Amino acid sequence: MDIRKLQRVVVDALEDVKAQNIKVFNTIGLSDMFDRVVLASGTSNRQTRALAYRVAQQVKEAGGHVVSVEGADAGEWVLVDLGDLVVHVMQPAIRDYYGLEEIWGGKPIRVKTADSAAKRIVAQGTSDAPILARPAPAAKKTRAAARPRKRVAAPPQERSAGKRAQRSKAIKSPARKVAARKKVRTA
After folding, report:
1. Which residues span the domain enclosing 179?
2. Is 7 exposed, middle or buried (0-12, 13-18, 19+ CB in 10 A)?
3. What span, in angstroms and rounded, lies between the C-alpha atoms of 53 and 145?
4. 24 and 93 fall within a common domain
5. What DSSP letter does each residue of 106-163 carry, written as one string?
6. What is d(CA 26, CA 78) in angstroms, rounded to the nearest whole number?
7. Rounded to whole angstroms, how far apart are CA atoms 133 and 120?
8. What is the DSSP letter of 72?
9. Of residues 79 and 127, which shows the higher confidence score?
10. DSSP three-state, residue 32
11. CA quadruple 106, 110, 116, 119: dihedral, nearest 10
12. Which residue has the higher pLDDT, 179 or 30?
């Protein structure tokens, strides 16, 4: 099967199951083992397994050969080896951690996806219509960042006097501790 046709089948299969952030890299000069690397993200273990299964199924239906599928048990990172093309389906956290985009090259191959086709149709429909873009994912707030701090600092003179008084009450010397224990035992 032609590499471009195989690439198109893979991208279409990934889009069918709603893969996110699909990128295709040309690795002809970087590796002798394969010519293309496709990276895609799934939102859960179940979706990454479904994406890999769909890719393998569509390639077989198109007349291609699936060499192997690795990592489907855990589902965090599933690799589909198609010979000349390798597909990495990962969860976003795993994808960010390993940074395969930097390994296989900074420039992905331009591939027409359903999102880009929809943007082009909207832009061609009216001359003043803006091109729609996906919103950037919102950063998750941690509990500490979500809660505002309500602590108000006292003036320096009051603060230091208050702390000294607390320290003298709270901190007992070892001799005082022993004396306090003896009093309790004798009473």
Report:
1. 155-186
2. buried
3. 39
4. yes
5. S-PBP---HHHHHHHHHHHH-TTPPPP-PPPPPPPPPHHHHSPP---PPPHHHHHHHH
6. 20
7. 11
8. T
9. 79
10. coil
11. 90
12. 30
Please tell me the least confidently modeled range out of 26-30, 112-116, 159-163, 174-178. 159-163
Look at residue 87 in the predicted model and tell me its pLDDT: 94
Q: How many residues does this entry show for the chain?
A: 187
The amino acid present at 11, given as its one-letter code, is V
Domain of 54, CATH number, reads 3.30.460.10
Judge whether 73 lies within some domain: yes
- How many domains does the chain contain in total? 2
What angle in degrees, to the nearest 10, is found between the helix axes of 3-16 and 45-61?
140
Residue 139 lies in a domain: no
Residue 98: count of CB within 10 angstroms of its CB: 13
Amino acid in the structure at residue 84: D
Contact residues for 109 (Cβ-Cβ < 8 A; gap 6+): 7, 24, 25, 26, 36
